[in-house]
Fold this sequence. Notes:
Elements: H1 3-16, E1 24-25, H2 27-37, E2 43-50, E3 55-59, E4 65-66, H3 72-84, E5 93-95, E6 115-117, H4 118-127, H5 131-140, H6 143-153, E7 160-161, H7 172-175, E8 178-180, H8 182-193, H9 200-209, E9 229-236, E10 239-246, E11 253-260, H10 272-288, H11 298-303
Parallel strand pairs: 1-3
Antiparallel strand pairs: 2-3, 2-11, 4-8, 5-6, 7-8, 9-10, 10-11
Helix pairs in contact: 2-10, 3-5, 3-6, 4-5, 8-9
Amino acid sequence: MTHSLRSFLLLLALITGPQVFARKNDPKLERLLRDALAGFRGDVGVYVHHIKSGKTVSINADTTFPTASTIKIPIMCGLFDKINKGELKYQQEIVYKDSLHYDDGIVGSLKDGAKFPLSQIVMLMETISDNTGSLWCQALAGGGTAINSWLDANGFSKTRVNSRTPGREAFRPTYGWGQTTPHELAELLLYIRQGKAISPDASDRMYRNLGRQFWDGDGLSQLPEGIKVATKNGAVNRSRSEVVLVHAPHGEYVYCIMTKNQQDERWERTNEGATLLRKVGALLWHYYEPKSDWKPADGYQKWW
């Protein structure tokens, strides 16, 4: 690639990437969100973008947070970049080897030599957040270096894969598998929604993959069952995160909430980070859909 072509592509990414959208703050929603975040024992960042109106709220939204499993959205982008270049096929058969084992999820429980379509491994990565399958997809995408190059070229300069990525060793103790900001992660999901990631066809396929979420007990539990969403969440001991694009009746909105340095490390529904994800999810739904009287049934809440 020539220097002039590289410069042109970077300029194009700046034009079409997350920086281009006109923004205006929503002070009323910001006050409500700040009240909701008050007293949280840890660090938290929130970014909200109501797509039709262009109104946003940013609270620590450009602060860097651990991605946990939300890094699986950038991994999928890197993988589809390879597919778009003809280096992989989405439905091609791939062979599992014991050397790929990371944990005992679905993919990690496969027998050596098991054959699966790549598309099904991607589905497991995004839907149930299978870690062995995700690391397999990361390797197939060319590794963290290739994924980070795609992110950089498309204007997402703060989102990075750290794990198994040369040169990123210093960031792993603090951020783990990956790092991002609430602002960038929300805009990456919107980038896919708008057909700008890789190609319109690739974006459509990736967006559909993000519309099937097994882990729906946090912010998604605060939405009516029939509302379409695209989403990915993540959790480690001291961090909870969720990025969601909601197809609300009165206009789509995308938001991302991320925590770090949580004092509460319990793996229970009442974890302060998980509770905050539900609180923010409910607040945004009722803010944008004020005539909605829907709320989770008591039995539903107790079941979790």
